[in-house]
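I have been asked to look over a protein record a colleague put together. What it holds is a sequence and that sequence's fold in C-alpha cell form. Please read both lines and tell me whether the C-alpha cells look consistent with the sequence. I do not need a full report, just your reasoning and any doubts. This is what I was given:
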Amino acid sequence: MEKTLKRIHPVSDPEEAYFLQVSWEKDLGTGFGIILSDGQCAWTGKVSEAEISREAADMEMNREKYVEELKKALIAGEESAGKYNFTIS
C-alpha cells in the first residue's frame, strides 16, 4: 500500500493547516482511503472505484483524465501547490 501525506490550507481559512493522508493499493483509479486531520481531530473515508467513475461521468470528463487530476490535487508535491484549492465544510 502506498501513502502520501501533505499539508493543505483551505481557502476559507488560509491561516489554518490541515493534514491530508491518501492511501491506495494499485493506483487512485481503483479507489483510495483518505484521512483529514486538523491536529486534534481526524476524519476518515473511502472512495471506491465506482464512485470515481461516477464522478468522472458527472463531470463529463474522461475517467483517465479525472484520475490524473485527482493525483495532482491529492498526492502531487510542490509542483501542484497553488493550482488546487481546498474548502473544508
Remarks:
- The longest strand covers residues 2-8.
